[in-house]
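User: Okay, second chain of the day. Same drill as before: sequence in, structure tokens out.
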Amino acid sequence: QVQLVESGGGLVQAGGSLRLSCAASGRTFGSGHMGWFRQAPGKDREFVAAIGCGSGATYYSGPVKGRFTISRDIAKNMVLLQMNSLKSEDTALYYCAVRTGVRIATPLEAASYDWWGQGTQVTVSP
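Assistant: Same drill. Structure tokens below.
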């Protein structure tokens, strides 16, 4: 049974930084992707960033590119999201997700992920 546990969310002023962590347990991921998604009240869940478990290749959505950095700690089976220059529009519940193997769908597609965490709240005050 795979479990994903996010941490690191909180309240921060605009322009500030936060680092989210996602610890995976139950198995290691030699292929596939680990990703971050977010959902603001009244909005659909949206892709934020993803990283290849084996390749380390990274993917970012347009709104966060240049401000957020995704990385992975293979030894600890974790994925991290460093968020800088935060804006009020970054306020959302942030979810960690994992998908395994080779997929036709791009790592930007939420429906292609196999496991999800419970989410961690990020609130950015103006």
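The first strand starts at residue 3 and ends at 7.

User: Thanks, on to the next one.
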